[in-house]
Amino acid sequence: MTTIQKATPKDYEILTEIGKTSFLESQGHCASAADVAVYINTKYTHEILKEELNNPDNQYYILYYNGQAAGYSKIIYNAPHPNIPIENITKLERIYLLKEFYGLNLGAELFQFNLELSKKNGQAGIWLFVWVENHRATRFYEKNGFEIVGKHDFKISENHSNPNHQLFLAY
After folding, report:
1. Percent above pLDDT 70 for the chain
2. Which of 22, 34, 35, 59 can pair with 96 through a Cys bridge, CB separation 3.0 to 4.6 Å?
């Protein structure tokens, strides 16, 4: 059984652990171990997640499968970008699923949930960044109607950045 719940500030520990683990599972090989460690240790801390959860612009949702936290998403409404000449668009900043839950269509379910939230909140589209080497994710988004509209260098550390596609879906 699957449920999706809006995260609250008390969920910072769950989000920190899922974020660290899923980033390592999907992108842990994207740079040197030292550079990846720098990224994880600066982006996935309890303090940062607490701060983000207390910011009303950030909407976090936790996906549970049979009572176990399996993944989460973070969306931001009204997040314009220069590559997209449309107002009222949502940024899907994070959508993470732990590898042990791959193959159960949970990522697709969490994505659809966020897509519906975006539409219900009067948004005209949704955009995100995907590492160019994450072919699985890129195929998923393209299959769901997204188009590549730009590029972005995703900074892992002072020494390393990864090329990302910017993808957009208009409603």
Report:
1. 100
2. 22
